[in-house]
Amino acid sequence: MVDLSFSTLLPILVLVVGGVLILIGDLFTKISRGVYVAATMLTLLISLGVLIYGDFSERAFFDMLLIDGLAKASMWVILGASLLFIPLGLTGMRFQEYQFAELYALFLFMIAGFSFMVASENLIVIIIGLETASLALYALISMHRRDKSLEAAIKYFTMGALAAGMLAFGAMLLYAATGSFNIGEISAAMVANGFDHLPLILVASAFMIGGIGFKLSVVPFHTWTPDVYEGSSAPMAGFMSIVPKIAGFVVAMRLFDFLARSDDSIVLWLLYIAAVATMTIGNLLALVQEGVKRMLAYSSVSHAGFVMTAIVMGTTDAYAGLFLYWTLFLFTNLGAFAMLWLSRHPSRVWDIRYDHPYTKFAGMVRLSPMGSVIMAIFMLSLAGVPPFALFFGKLYLIGEALRTDYVGLALIMVVNSAIAVYYYLKLIIYMFLRDPSDNDGTVYYQNGTIALKVVLGIAAAAVTLSFFWIEPLMQALRWALDT
User: Fold this and answer.
1) Virtual CA dihedral for 79, 80, 82, 86, nearest 10 degrees?
2) Concatenated DSSP letters for 441-454?
3) Which of 40, 66, 69, 156 is most enclosed, with most CB atoms within 10 A?
């Protein structure tokens, strides 16, 4: 029982028990959507409280789980994003999936799976956590109950199965080379052997980059992203752009840190090329999109590439910058996708292909002034315009690249940031400088629900006033990553 250390598992066990209790409660009585939302938020808050104030050992479950500073920081991001996402279940009756208990149970199981991913350095546990989270996520996407949603779930499932196979095969090759599935033991064995099995290790690294790259939407494993985002509900798409990726980043940090710092720099160059290609190609594809949701999908691909540069740099300050950037991105991107819920028209009156074409937002400032201002704030933040949130995240990562002598990488980051400004400002121009197009004013919610107002208010305030809390957050992240 000491080796199991259930007290260390408590933050994750709370999520699993909460999901099971919701399913049991639904068996015996009909519960309203508000109760489901409240129960899910209570479960998330308890898990977060245990994580922050709990006194537990670092390792558990026969050393297969690792609750270190990296795990805690990533679980803060995961639980924080979840607490912003769940209240959106109270907004609008159009999305019927929020009426079902299964959605909330699957959501908690998904969060538990991602928590297992970030709280372990055992490759088997990481793969099991990934599959637990992914299977729940496939079901959540398909519950949107549209043709595009089913198509998106099938595409995501197919690509996810391929990625899982690549991860499993890469893990098998690493085990063949070192005799262990534990990343720490793999690292020690490679150093002790002087990287004798380098060709095998490089092949394993290529498979692991492919498997993790799927979750991070790394080029060329990004092709599923726009279709899956488009088929999902807008808040679910925003959630998918944040939580699965932070889990993937943590696994990449644990796995590639020692490989990239080895005497042979091939793995480091693979990561370098992947980061540059992802941020650049994501930007270029976002430039030519006609739908706002697809533009935000390719935008998230580009941001993933931007943040991946922290793994290339490999310093503690770079990792702190990664978490800073992704925390700021959490508020910005989830808020931007939530703003798409202002659109409620049941038919595509502007475009046959897209639910959210740019023309739909033409003249929005006249029809929903506050909504257009909030959306503009999120777009300016994504573009990295000061003084909004992501400006500080980009500034910090570019500065760290210069400090670690990655001058060329810093220049590429600056150029890509400049390119991204165009397609974010394009939406602002449509909202503020175009006349309304075939719009009688009924397309936008003039009075959103309280839950929507609270979530958007928190996101907009966090983005606008970020300069007040960035320094305390950076200090907390440095402290967490050093423990």
Assistant:
1) 130
2) S-SB-SS--HHHHH
3) 40
